[in-house]
Amino acid sequence: MPNKTPVLGPAQFKLLEKLCNAVAVSGGENEVRTIILDQIKPYVDEIRVDALGNVLAVRKGRGARRMKVLLDAHMDEVGFMLVADEGDGLYRFKTIGGIDTRNLAGKQVLVGKERKPGVIGAKPIHLTTSDERKKPLSEEALRIDLGPESKMKVGERGTFAPNFRRIGPSVMSKSLDNRLGAAILIELLRVPHPNIDVCAAFTVQEEIGLRGAKVAAQYFEPDLAFVIDSTPANDLPMQYESENTFYNTKLGLGPAVYVANASTLDDPRLVRYFEEVAHRAGIPYQIRQPGGGGTNAGRIQRAGLGAPVVSVSVPHRYTHTAMSVARIQDWKNTLALLHVALVQVTPSILKR
Amino acid sequence: MKQLIQKLTDTFSPSGYEEAIRSVIRSEIKNYADDVRVDALGNLIARKGKGGARIMVAAHMDEIGLMATHVDDRGFVRFTGIGGVYPRNLPGGRVRFIDGTRGVIGLEGGVFGNDLPPLEKMFIDVGAVSRQDCRVKTGDVAAFERPFLDLGDRLVAKSMDNRVGCAVAIEALRALKSTSNEVYFVFTTQEEVGTRGAQTSAYGIDPALGFSIDVTGWGDTPGQRDFDVALGKGPAIKIRDGGMLSDPRIVDWMTGVAGKNRISVQREVLLGGTTDARAMQLVRGGIPVGCVSIPCRYVHSPSEMVDYNDVQNAVKLVAALLKAPIKLSGAR
Q: How close A324 comes to chain B (CA, Å)?
């Protein structure tokens, strides 16, 4: 008997682990695309992969004059590209997406379709001068070391080695941004929302400039859009007793509803709608601090004739590093909030 | 027209939150336009004329503002800017939130001293004594608050950028009793954060050419350099700005019409900044664009100053531009 409400059970944890352990860096999303296609095919009426590699799927509703609601979750993760072969298994590399190079030295990596393991190396500490240790290591000082047998070529993509684990109330893994979003969108497609046409876009190349979303929005021409992403929680205590006022979001406070960031002023009607849905359904939520950062919402909002948008994200700590941390309860509540919002959405929420 | 400008500048509508100003402008134009509609991003689109060349005239109705990022336990509100908000314009300023809550901008460390802290070290004091007592929450939106000032030839208010441009568009629509063109006056949203409303509205209208009406900078106060535009010397025909090169044929057309109608104009070469014309120029297959600018002192401060004669002459120029069939001539 198919479910009417999304479930977060052992199958969903296994799926999140599979998604997180895949290597799918911007521009090379194939491993994740394959998993997603396999998961959603039984539940959708239309499915295609477009020229950029976006997975575009529609689960149709019933009734005349249904709204088209676009749900976007980007499939790509940050990573590296090999740019020069220095021989002996050592490669110079460039980061793909916003990676702080201070987080790289000593990290394990997987590179290429063959998932060759390696490590990011730098000069060991006892060979450095005190001056060198004062400055953070730049990309130029680091190397990916795959060992002399690796036979990797320039242009191959790689990322942090897979390391998913569930510990207490948390999941910890690389690429929670945005495998959590992709996992949520898969679960939303498994259950019916007969009042609307659900247009799902698992998009590519978000981390390098919100690219796939533009094309997906131009294809769907939706009435409105919800972007499902994962956003940083910088909620560690400050060093010297002063209050942390720049946390962006906090773990444990629930799904983060966006009001504004560098790419988008989220539509106030949709922000208000999510707040009302959350209150009525008793789902905790937080407002993501306005400020920097970008999501696919910006591109979708201005594609073609434009559409009202809002982003709803799962908070996680240690963005774009080898291991991020998110609370299972936040994942659950984000899925629940989006599901109820889809069930209750009507054209009247856009009334001015 | 001074009353109209005051009405518009007294409205609080930062980018993304244009509901109030849209309603004010709609009531001003509804008896003069052939058709009025609102698109997906909230742009207010008023059509005048049918069947002729499609022309889009954009005047953005949003203003810069502030958005609350955090309310601390003593009720002080941290904030970020919406659009180009500069620290110099903030200390001691007054703001009003959309719900009417008013406050003062304070600085960490107080007011004595010569340095200028960044936005992160400022806060809004709404008179609350604790977080629970504070009516503001994260995401709430505010704009500068400052009374309108009529100095005779000179008018001062917050959000002259671009409510004075909206006023010019409204008056031009009223003055345009008939036209052989199909003119779309678009009061756009979200210009201050990246000409966003203009992009989707231009996509929908698909005009043959377009121009924006916006304020521009000024060159006629102490220390201003390299900008040859002054208050009182007439509306400016924009040659270029930081984001757009006007089509030379549009510049010629505007100059010609100004000459024929004996309207003194200035030529504007702006090194930074941009307007909705940029978004119109690059939409779909692209269109020729230009801009009619109103010189404005102290742009993006709470006290922006324009010359009333410049504003009235801008209305004359825009109405004259839109009335007759347009023939762009000359080499590109």
A: 24
pLDDT of amino acid B113: 81
In chain A, what residues touch B203 (CB-CB under 8 Å)? 304-306
**Whether B16 and A246 lie within 8 Å, measured CB to CB:** no
**DSSP, residue by residue, A67-111:** EEEEEEEE--B-EEEEEEE-STTEEEEEEESS--GGGTTT-EEEE
Q: Can you tell me the distance from the alpha carbon of A19 to that of A33, in angstroms, rounded to the nearest whole number? A: 10
Q: pLDDT band at residue A242, thresholds of 50, 70 and 90?
A: confident
Residue of B nearest to A305 (CA): B200
Cα gap B208→B325, rounded to integer Å: 12
Q: Which CATH number applies to B65-144: 2.40.40.20, 3.30.70.1450, 2.40.30.40, 3.40.50.2020? A: 2.40.30.40
- Given B38, B67, B203, which is nearest A352 (Cβ)? B38
CATH domain B2-63+158-323 topology? Aminopeptidase (3.40.630)
| Partners of B38 in the β-ladder | B44
B28 Cα to chain A: minimum distance (Å)? 18
ipTM: 0.88
Q: Name the strands in the sheet holding B154-157, side by side, starting at the edge strand that comes first in the sequence.
A: B149-150, B154-157, B304-307
Residues A302, B199: C-beta atoms closer than 8 Å: yes
How confident is the model at residue A239, as a pLDDT? 73
Q: What is the pTM of this model?
A: 0.92
Chain position carrying tokens 């599901």: A339
B42 in reach of chain A (CB within 8 A): yes
Span B76-96, mean pLDDT? 95
Q: Coil, helix or strand for B24?
A: helix
